[in-house]
Model the fold of this input.
Amino acid sequence: MKTHGTRSIEKQFASRKRLKAEERRIQLLRIAKELFSEYGFENTTAKAIAEAAGVTEAIVFRHFGSKQELYANILDRKADEIGIDNWGSELATFAKCENDEALVLSVITHILEADRQDPQFQRLLLQAALTGRPLNKITAQRLLPLHRFLRNYIKKRQKRGAFKRCDPELAAHAIVGIPSYYGLAKILYGMDNLTISEDRMAAGFARIILEGLHAVIGSSGKNEKSGAVTGRLSG
Done:
């Protein structure tokens, strides 16, 4: 494997001074995240990570038993950084109140913010997806709870007659997929042709999704597609 060359992160962490265990762990996660996202999982060795950190391979494996474990810990650390537990509680509150607009808008907003704030992490996920098993399985395990939550919420709202009949699995993918594709196109291909604010963008995506899901009771007593979504998304 070729040497990765000089990188800013190497300059920052090249010192061999002894760090506390948690500090060293965070350092290794940061370096691995950068190298995985830039060169791919298969092309990044534990030796390269160790060299960038100014430590030996043994130190890397002392903190993480394998590269797969290192990747999994990068995902878990990211979840902590974005406050996944608090976000989950927020979504659960919206679901309990059956606040469709707030729930969908929250999902879209978080995805757009994540892509804007940390495009390197999105590249990491894409590199992992290209690697295939076991990384895609590790990623899926952390994405499935959100997808399952959305699917179950859609099914619940369909039973109440608030959402029209459709495949809840497809609808859950649509909610996540629309803002995710925008981030993908922007990060990978530089397609940033939307000149509106992120708030308006999120509201627009949410409106498109909810206008496809919402149903109203027509004069015939049957569910019909709603012509518009009201509330905070109508502005």
